[in-house]
Amino acid sequence: MTQRTKLFLLNHGPLLTTVAIFLLAYIIGGQLYPAMQKPQVFFNLFINNGSLLIVSIGMTFVILTGGIDLSVASVIALTTVASAVLLQNGLPPLVVMPLMLLMGVAFGAVLGGFIHFLKVQPFVVTLMGSFFARGMAYIISLTSVTIKDPFYNSLALTPIYIPFVPNAYVYSYALVGPMLFLATIYLAFFTRFGRTVYAIGNNEQSARLMGLPVGRTKISVYAFSGFCSALAGIVWSIALLSGYGRYAPSMELDAIASVVMGGTMLTGGVGNVIGTLFGVLINGTIVSLLQFNGTLSSWWTRIGVGALTLVFIGIQSLFYVRRKSVG
Amino acid sequence: MLETTDAILLMRGISKIFPGVTALEDVDFALRPGEIHALMGENGAGKSTLIKVLTGVEHPDNGSIELAGRLVQVRSPQHSQSLGISTVYQEVNLCTNLSVAENILLGNEPRRFGTIDWRRMNALAAQALKRLDIDIDVARPLGNYSLAIQQMVAIVRALEIESARILILDEPTSSLDANETSRLFDVMRKLRASGIAIVFVTHFLDQVYQVSDRITVLRNGRLVGTYDTESLPRVELIAKMLGRSLADLETVSRARAEHELPDAQSLALKATGLGHKGTLEPLDLALRAGEVVGLAGLLGSGRSELARLLFGVDTPDAGSLEVGGAPVTRHGPGESLRRGIALCPEDRKVEGIVKDLTIRENIILALQARQGWARYLPESKQYEIAERFVRLLGIVTPSVDQLVGNLSGGNQQKVILARWLAINPRILILDEPTRGIDVGAKAEIQKLVLDLADEGKSIVFISSELEEVLRISQRVIVMRDQRKAAEYGKDVNAQTIIHTMAGHQ
Amino acid sequence: MTPHKLLARVRESRLFWPLTALAVILLFDAIFEPGFFKIGIIDDPVYGPHLYGNLIDVLNNGAPLMLVSIGMTLVIATGGVDLSVGAVIAISAAMGAVLINPALGDRLITNDILTADTTNTPLPLIILADLAAGTLCGLWNGFLVSRARIQPMVATLILMVAGRGIAQLITNGQIMTIYYTPYFWFGNGFILGLPVSIYIVAGVALLAWLLVRKTALGLFIESTGVNARAAYYAGLDERNIKLLAYTFCGFTGAIAGLILSSYVHSSDANNIGANYELDAILAVVMGGTLMSGGRFSIVASIIGAIVIWAFTITMYTFGVPADALTAAKAVLVLLVILLYSEFSQRLLGRWGLRKGQRHDPAH
Fold it and tell me: Which of the other chains make 3 or more beta carbon contacts under 8 angstroms with chain B?
């Protein structure tokens, strides 16, 4: 193997592993359960994991800076409840949606501010944020609130057929995640903000010495994660046409696991959103496999995801050590 | 005398006092454009404080800084960069996960409509590197390259982004091999030719003579002098760093002559071909009971590395070690404690004190570690031990329940010493035990070492102060370039040792 | 000792802040809800006469958190953190519920058998299995942190992700209701009029105290937390110290799971012990242990846990629903964060420095 290919493999190994695991899982699934070969099953991954994909993308940026955001699931729940109640009170959807996004951004920015200015560990601050958001959701409404708004209804129920693939469709809200995905690829690779995120994750001290706007970027990253959570909350409320404080239980863990399975290092600086997309798909595929199997129970998802997370932490550090020794 | 003609940087009368320590006292420093100026001195000489003052990390208590004829106050590292003063450290302060090009240009990257123009960025970076004859793929992550390349990338960044006029290279060659070092020197010479002033901090004498034009020597926070490299013989330089003129050293009194070896036969420790790749070339060492062996050598010569190897902090990858006649198979501080070896480490803050614990707890820590967790020393016993050593070493404190973090440096050092004396070791390795301690306490510690030797303990004594080493050691081992350069008996004189350190046999 | 010095000592004590917080909450109750302090005696048909009232509830409901806080204190003192305590509680509770289930094995299950007040497993064995399960979890965390050298937050996150799945695996996804009366004693019983759980807390606290203050473990843990490198040079094996701290934390989580499942007569893998991670961290931080590790006080952490539950019960008496309570708790965390932030530490520090300099022999 030439030095060049070797370096390529070392630099992109985790991502390639993720893609390989996804393909493997999917192909094996297709062999075991022929029903899984239908293209619609693949598109269902996006329909069923729309919100997870969105928060995982936000989480990727947070983790790339070396932080963590445990508040995403609660912000989803808060967003569903808040938007359901606002819609019930007759506010137009085109007002509600931007309002929710604004709330998410503000919420994340405040958490980011605590983390940056008070120098408190991110998991403490965002765990607090999680408590707060979940509590606020219940304060707004203790019970589930249905959404009867016609615009939400049409978004929820109108299928969009996929060109060139017969009988395959997604719902409009399933496209939000992929669109955000494309936007964040641009954000991560073609803007100073994105590169600063990577720099901070590698070595915050260095980033500061290089004169990069460390504080502003860190706060922005949490604000962006808040934005993603609110967006995911909107998608969730469209998909289920209701809002409830109990929605999205422990989804922050699924998001973190997806990010890690996507090859992003929890210590920061290494990884990208492309991997995260596949991490979410792996998560979704495991769930689909269990559904097709029918006899295996749902908790295997959590255990499987936990085990894969551990495996990926191991793979990551292996690649990391090898990279260092090659250099 | 400070030469002021055509200097780009003039530092005058710089003083900096930290609680309990005078780090810099009335130091003058002048830098000319287009020179490589070596800054020399042992640990604690004040080099790093001087650099920190220059780069705005610390603010001087006294003195002035003139940059190109203009009086300035350096407020912060960012401010110093904007003034054209850039620093490249031994541990490169760049981001290894970003590409070389990003590391050079990020913060000032070429953009088109807000989007990073990768093609132009890579071209610009490659061009900047070319100017220093470095030809590498700038799109690859910096972490894929060797430390030498990383350092050069850091230099290029300093020149490109911060348009540095003064470049401080802080121990840049410590982790480079000979090839990489000479490559770095080529770059430095090129920069010198283009009029950039370079401050070169290093502890490698050879390199100073290879590349520098002038040398400034600091010692104990004071300026010893600034010299032209050509007119300063190597031996003189060492003598200045260690704080003795050559003539002075001849008249050092020999207290140790009165201390004869009690029993020359019993070997307390025997190392054969002991070495560690990258830090210490294999060497032989024998320690007799009741003997003080001095380890002389400059910073980075391998003296502390040898101590760490003997104590088991680092695991040797060559040779064998015997303690009390039994071969050592398992290394590690815990194992060494049980064998009766103690190391009083050089870096008191990082490796020594546990600042939030009391004096008593700090003193009994190693003893307790050897006893194991289950056999906790009764409190009365703890107080007895702690108070005994507080008295014995003259630690100034109202009670042994004071937090160690509240003590002065010298008293902290004594607490650490007490920790190791408390285990009653057979072999005691002291790495710079008297640094930063006043003269009275120094003499006390020296006397204590001799007393311990009389009790039959073997002592390895490491110090930058030659006089001290000569006074109390029966044998002196001189380290140089990570190897044992020579071993002398008690009749050696300072001049011989300095010549050995300088590399003239 | 002059009154001034006495005051300084009180202020420097680790118990000062949590006790102040407790006093503030109780004072609030005294003013706005004097009935809060009413304690009566009730003659319970099962457990005999015992005390009841809000203060007793604080102790009984707070017992699991106090237990977890004891374990968390040791972990945080080594400079780590354990995010998996909630999951450990769920695993231990699931273990107990499954073993009690009389249908254990492949016997035919009928509703009668399932809801009978009986078990095929001896109670001591059930308890032992509970404790073993949790302790094993702690050992796993300790292994990841000390041997695999994964940073504590990440290492314990793995069990946080997978733990409730494992609990569901144990209970086969059911919310197990427990019908075996003797098991209820731990969470509902009384000895001499006081809840059994409080005696358990006292027992575990005593055990922990003996372990860290009557052996050298406390010294070792604190040394590791303050300066791990210096501790290593002094011959300590930080790996085993960390392993022990995490294992003990798992052990306390297991007991908490036992009491909680006993108290609510069931084991719901998804909800039992929810939010205990943050509560426990909060209790420990309120008890004056720094998140970066070092000096710790078990008693102060227990008082921190009592503060949290005094706050919770107070909110209940004011009619705040349990679900919405988390928002109020978040505000409490924020207060503590602000109090312990660098900014306010600097304010306090300026105050303390002047004091310190007077003591300092060097000046």
Answer: A, C
Q: Which domain holds residue C183?
A: 62-319
- Cα dist from B89 to A73, B199, C158, whole Å: 43, 12, 37
- Residues composing chain C: 363
- Does the pTM surpass 0.90? The reply is no
B373 neighbourhood in chain C, CB within 8 Å = 215-217, 220
Total tally of structural domains belonging to chain C: 1
Going from the C-alpha of B212 to that of each of B327, B452, B498, the distances in angstroms are 46, 44, 21
Cα–Cα distance between A284 and A289 in angstroms, integer?
A: 9
Q: C333-361 burial, b for 16+ CB within 10 Å, e for fewer?
A: bbebbeebbeeeeeeeeeeeeeeeeeebe
pLDDT digits 0-9 by tens, B13-22: 999 887 667 7
Distance from CA of C134 to the nearest CA of B (A): 24
- What contacts 24+ positions apart, CB below 8 Å, involve B28-31? B28/B2, B28/B223, B29/B216, B29/B223, B29/B226, B30/B2, B30/B3, B30/B4, B30/B226, B31/B7, B31/B166, B31/B197, B31/B199
Backbone angles phi, psi at B98, to 5 degrees: -90, 160
> Best of B314, B339, B360, B365 to disrupt the C interface by mutation (most C CBs within 10 Å)?
B365
C337–A120 CB contact, under 8 Å = yes
B94 touches chain A (CB under 8 A): yes
Amino acid at A26: Y
Closest-CA distance of chain C to residue B73, Å = 26
Give the minimum alpha-carbon distance from C360 to chain B in angstroms, rounded to a whole number. 6
Locate the chain A residue with the closest alpha carbon to C331.
A132
Q: Is B372 left (phi over 0), alpha (psi -120 to 50) or beta?
A: left
- Residues C18 and C308: their CA atoms lie apart, in Å, by 10
How far C224 CA lies from chain A's nearest CA (Å)?
A: 20
Give the Cα separation of A8 and B137 in Å (integer): 13
Kindly tell me the burial class for residue B116, based on how many C-beta atoms sit within 10 Å of its own C-beta (0-12, 13-18, 19 or more): buried
User: Does residue C49 sit within a domain?
Assistant: no
Q: Tokens at residue C304, please?
A: 């921190």
Q: Which residue of A has its CA nearest to B91?
A: A206
Q: Which residues of chain A have pLDDT under 50?
A: 326-327
**Burial code of B384-399, b = ≥16 C-beta within 10 A, e = fewer?**
ebbbebbeebebebee
Q: Is residue C285 part of a domain?
A: yes
Q: Which strand (E) or helix (H) includes residue B461?
A: strand B458-462
Identify whether the C-beta of residue B438 lies closer than 8 Å to the C-beta of residue B256.
no
Task: Select the more confidently predicted residue: C90 or B406.
Answer: C90
Q: Which ipTM did the prediction report?
A: 0.85
Q: What is the DSSP letter of B358?
A: B
Report the gap between the CA of C353 and the closest CA in chain B (Å): 11
Residue of A nearest to C269 (CA): A299
Q: Does A191 touch chain B (CB under 8 A)?
A: yes
- A204 — phi, psi (to 5°)? -60, -40
A282–C contact, CB cutoff 8 A: no
Cβ proximity of A98 and A86 under 8 Å: no
Tokens of B256: 């140790």
Rounded Cα–Cα distance for residues B33 and B9 (Å): 8
Cα–Cα distances (Å) from B27 to B37, B51, B75, B152, in that order, read 16, 12, 19, 30
Q: Do A124 and C278 touch (CB under 8 A)?
A: yes
Cβ atoms of residues B423 and B370 within 8 Å: yes
Q: What is the mean pLDDT of residues B243-269?
A: 54
Q: Do B369 and C220 touch (CB under 8 A)?
A: yes
pLDDT per residue over C119-152, tens digit each?
Answer: 777 888 889 999 999 999 999 999 999 988 888 9
User: Is C37 among the domain residues?
Assistant: no
- Backbone dihedral angles phi then psi of residue C183, each to the nearest 5 degrees: -70, -30
In a domain, C361, yes or no: no
Say whether residue B1 is in contact with chain C using an 8 A CB cutoff.
no
